[in-house]
Amino acid sequence: MRIDILTIFPEMFDGPFSHSIVKRAKEKGLVEIHLHNIRDYATDKHRRVDDYPFGGGAGMVMMIEPVLNCIENLKKDRDYDEIIFLTPDGQMFDQPIANQLSVLKNIILLCGHYKGIDERLREHVITREISIGDYVLSGGELAAAVVTDSIVRILPGVLGDETSALSDSFQDGLLSPPVYTRPADYKGWKVPDILLSGHDRKIAEWRHEQALERTRKRRPGLLEDDV
């Protein structure tokens, strides 16, 4: 899989993509992540990427030309399954969307800034818009890092245990059940006996029951479709 990220702050991705699972996936050759500085595609000597909005008002707007120049340059070499704009008013990102994106071959993530991007890019170029929550960030870089991490971790071969991602919260519409590790008794705080029983079927049933109960208490909205 290849992920191209368009940004005016490529250095913000040094930390998230240089450690842990994303780093491992890159080293295994399971994903390519390419960062592109939109300023490199500006047409003036000051590498300007923003301008005042028509009609007045506060804030600046990302210009069409630098963004489109970058996208068109990338499209010369390959076709893209999705060109995604990270924006607060996009579709709310969730696990099913991460699953959908993980099976694609090439995607572009565009990080917005200022008051957003020229609307004509959204009308004619962007194929999908995604939000990671009902709040506003300073830019789309953190959102792009979140989306990238959630996609990469479920690519086949990335995790040491292929079944690990399948038991994550939201994969089956439920929150994950509680988990425990050694010691079995710490200061009188004991691990549930069922987990020490070695009875796989009963343990699986217990985990499902716990997942349902936790979801009812913490995120009942996830169960509404099943009622």
Description:
The structure is a single chain. The protein has 227 residues and is of the alpha/beta class. The chain has helices at 20-27, 64-75, 95-102, 119-124, 141-152, 200-218; strands at residues 2-7, 32-37, 50-51, 61-62, 82-92, 106-111, 128-131, 185-186, 189-190. Helices cover 29% and strands 18% of the residues. The strands form three sheets. The chain has a five-stranded parallel sheet, with helices on both faces. Strands 3-4 form a two-stranded antiparallel sheet. β8 (185-186) and β9 form a beta hairpin. α3 packs across α5 (141-152). The radius of gyration is 22 Å and the shape is elongated. It starts with a strand and ends in a 9-residue tail after the last helix.
Features:
227 residues; alpha/beta; Alpha/beta knot; Trp Operon Repressor, Chain A; 2 domains; 6 helices; elongated
Could you give a short description of this structure?
Helix content is 29%, strand content 18%.
Distance between the termini: 37 Å
Provide the β-strand percentage band. Answer: 15-25%
Give the CATH superfamily of the largest domain: SPOUT methyltransferase, trefoil knot domain
- How many independent structural domains? 2
Structural category is alpha/beta
Largest sheet: 5 strands, parallel
Tally of contiguous helical segments = 6
* Total number of strands: 9
**Dominant shape:** elongated
The CATH class assignment of the largest domain is: Alpha Beta
Tell me, rounded to a whole number, the average pLDDT. 94
Any idea what the radius of gyration is?
22 Å
CATH topology of the largest domain: Alpha/beta knot
